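If you are new to this repository, start here. Below is one unmodified record pulled from the training split, so you can see the exact layout before writing a loader.
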Amino acid sequence: MGVFILRRIGVMILTALCLTFIVFFMTNLYPNLEKLAKTQGNFRMTEAEVQSYLDRNGYLQPIFSKYAQWLGVAPGWTKAVNDGVRGRCVHGTVSVDEINNAPKYCGILQGNWGFSTVFKNDVGPLVLARLGLTGKLMMWVLLLMIPLALMIGVLAGMREGSATDRSLSTISIVTTATPEYVSGVIFVAVFASSTVGLKWFKGTATAAMEDATFNNFFLPVLTIALYGMGYIARMTRASMTEVMTAQFIRTARLKGASFLRIVLKHALRNALIAPFTVIMLQFPWLLNGVVIVETLFNYKGFGWLLVQAAGNNDIELLLAVSVASVVVVLLTQLISDIGYVFLNPRIRIS
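And here is the target side for that same chain:
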């Protein structure tokens, strides 16, 4: 197991490097840099003024040099300007003594994620704070989505072809086929609108950032949970149906075991092996799903931050958000592989 984990970690590191370099390359294309210069300066800037801004802030270096500095494996750039010295490891223009006392390496490996041109703040604490808010949202989504999906899947798969099976399968298909932006708008119009709605809940979740209550947090949680619930329920139902026709289930029936005992003791554990992997893969999907829901309900978490970074061409912030997404995806895949081995003893790691 230890060798397996080390190999997977090695593959994860290589994958992370490849993915982050692709994002770094795309965000540092010249049209994006030109847009950044005009956003920070003036949209009437001439080409010469754009070149001067980019050169002054270290954006015109070779792509591999910038990527190495961003990682923190190469010394940060410095450049003498008319009123002092500028560099990657300092903010603004400083004196020669200050640049000499500044750290030589200042990339993500040293904990320096850059400076946000939109929020005018360090990127690292900003991403961690927003990721924590999204983590709170995801926790409540999982607490609602997983038990409900497993219950629907197990009940549907216990008796294949029954009326219960057909009804619950239809519900699962409908929830999966309805995107979050559709169900979210419907929920707001029906349950939160001040004109024609029932006014049971609030249509915005901004207040939930500080104090999450049932009134201001249930609608975004329900919107995300319903979409993911159908997929997990269908996978659980398919797995349960397959297990219920297995030979050991028939043997248990011939021995006279009760149907409830057969389901709970023999079928359920084997039926949950495949859904476990699906559940773990919901984490990457949740990071994408919250982009829509957080924007719709004005919940300023990780997804909202991603929209702000992309919409305002905040390169450093967009890179940090991408790194956080890559890390979450790779870690959940590793946990999924390890958990799958423990759930299914027949698997052997060579």
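Two things worth knowing about this chain: The chain is about 70% helix and 0% strand. Residues 243 and 267 are 6 Å apart (CA to CA).
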